[in-house]
Amino acid sequence: MLAELGALGRTMALPPIEVVDVDSDPVLARRHGLDVPVLLLDGTVVCRHRLDTAELRRLLRYRT
Prior knowledge:
two-stranded antiparallel ribbon, 3 helices, alpha+beta, single chain, about 60 residues
């Protein structure tokens, strides 16, 4: 997912990306379990497992 985000970031402006090790945090491990990688935007899940480019573009378009 990071590689895909990097490629997408070369074609459009993306907000800063913070990589968090879900397994190192018990709360995040319970919340996301096996659904990693997970991409969140403003605390909301955008996609799990694979980058959903269309959904991310849609959400960024309407972001204030």
